[in-house]
Specification:
Order of helices and strands: HHHHHEEHHHHHHHHHHHH
Oligomer: single chain
Radius of gyration: 19 Å
Distance between the termini: 32 Å
Number of helices: 17
């Protein structure tokens, strides 16, 4: 999946759904997004139907071989987020249409009732979206990305565009941090760590890799996965039935990990496939480089109205 180049000729380049004036543009270039994605998987697995839909329709978490399908799934998810954030409007719409078309064909069986249900059930799509946005925002802020409360609200509002592309009605999607927190309060009574969630937990702790990579998994992956688990809310730890370090210790580790990962030159990090950010900068200009420093100039960002779910100018 690749972002299309900007329009030819002398016309202005297409900023895509978000653009360099958005909070999302600058947040999604941060290396802690990978750890935030792991936290999102932990959180998403606590919805029995959502995780059952994954289990029945993907070999990712069942794979006991070299993990190629597993890592392929994770990389495809990262590619999708990158396309929506940094690709052209056309590329983002095309990616969303592809995901909706796939989801329309998939069903799964409710683990409690035996009822067949559609994977594109709006309630399931909303859970996956909210767990993802909550995880991205939580990890970025807790690891040191300098978001103000207003910018955090703006981030949630901007990503209603993401929800629309996977098939949700934008009017039903939380558009600020208070609405997001209220959604979790309403949803929590129906969450549980059933057998499927524990399969996800076991996979994330020891994902299948080629035998030669097992030392690297123990050295690099397991501490990061443990940190992602530790960053979950206390109620999620209680559902999983597995303890986590004290919140203050987790915050220290998140900030340290963030500082370490951010010492890796961004240009080097962004060379890794699929290269969405570098293509976006070539399209939009080097001054559009994603940076937490830009986020500190809150007025410069907040003076621009956030995009609507369709990507155009929206309400402030």
């Amino acid at each position: 999946m690749r972002s299309d180049p900007g329009p030819a000729g002398g016309s202005d380049p297409d900023p895509g759904l978000y653009g360099p004036a958005s909070v999302t543009w600058h947040c999604h270039g941060d290396p802690m997004m990978w750890l935030a994605g792991v936290r999102a998987l932990y959180l998403q697995a606590l919805h029995p139907r959502a995780v059952r839909g994954v289990m029945e329709n993907s070999a990712a978490f069942r794979d006991q071989g070299d993990g190629q399908d597993t890592w392929g799934r994770l990389l495809r998810t990262a590619d999708f987020v990158g396309t929506l954030t940094y690709g052209t409007t056309e590329a983002a719409e095309r990616a969303g249409a592809r995901v909706r078309a796939i989801h329309r064909t998939l069903t799964a069986t409710d683990p409690a009732t035996g009822e067949r249900f559609r994977v594109d059930d709006p309630e399931l799509l909303l859970w996956v979206h909210c767990a993802q946005i909550d995880s991205f925002l939580h990890v970025l802020r807790r690891s040191g990305v300098p978001l103000t409360a207003a910018q955090a609200d703006r981030y949630v509002a901007e990503n209603v565009a993401n929800a629309r592309l996977v098939g949700l009605d934008p009017d039903r999607v939380p558009a600020d941090t208070a609405a997001l927190a209220a959604y979790f309060e309403r949803t929590r009574p129906g969450l549980a760590a059933g057998p499927d969630a524990h399969v996800v937990d076991a996979f994330l702790r020891r994902p299948p890799v080629h035998p030669l990579l097992r030392p690297a998994r123990a050295l690099l992956w397991r501490p990061l996965a443990a940190l992602a688990y530790g960053s979950l809310p206390g109620w999620a730890h209680r559902l999983y039935g597995r303890p986590a370090p004290a919140p203050r210790a987790v915050t220290r580790r998140l900030r340290l990990t963030g500082r370490l990962l951010r010492t890796i030159p961004a240009g080097l990090r962004w060379q890794m496939p699929p290269g969405h950010i570098l293509r976006a900068m070539r399209r939009m200009g080097s001054s559009t480089r994603p940076s937490a420093y830009t986020l500190r100039r809150a007025a410069a960002i907040l003076e621009v109205p956030p995009p609507t779910a369709g990507g155009g100018p929206g309400r402030a």
